[in-house]
Amino acid sequence: MTEVVKRIIELGLNQMDLVRIEARCHPDNVGSSRVMEKSGMQFEGLLRKSIYTKGVHQDLKMYALVR
């Protein structure tokens, strides 16, 4: 999965000329966090109560890569 994310990031930066790419995941989703970190994204913080799912407000971890 990390290779796929790296290629998507490459496409966004090189072909689409994006300046910022960001991704979010549930704090308990260790696998997704590791993929983002291994892809060069940096943890920016916790978005507290940022989504409402299954009747509960939940936090999200925010990762980003800036050119």
Strand content: 35-45%
Helix content: 25-40%
State the secondary-structure class.
Answer: alpha+beta
CATH architecture: 3-Layer(aba) Sandwich
Query: Going by CATH, what is the homologous superfamily?
Result: Gcn5-related N-acetyltransferase (GNAT)
Question: What layout of secondary structure does this protein have?
Answer:
Layout: H1 2-15, E1 20-25, H2 30-38, E2 42-53, E3 56-66
Antiparallel strand pairs: 1-3, 2-3
Can you walk me through this structure?
Strands 1-3-2 form a three-stranded antiparallel sheet. The chain starts with a helix and ends with a strand. A hairpin with a 2-residue loop joins strand 2 (42-53) and strand 3 (56-66). It is α+β, with helices and mostly antiparallel strands. The protein is elongated, with a radius of gyration of 13 Å. It has helices at residues 2-15, 30-38; strands at 20-25, 42-53, 56-66. The chain has one domain: Gcn5-related N-acetyltransferase (GNAT) (Aminopeptidase).
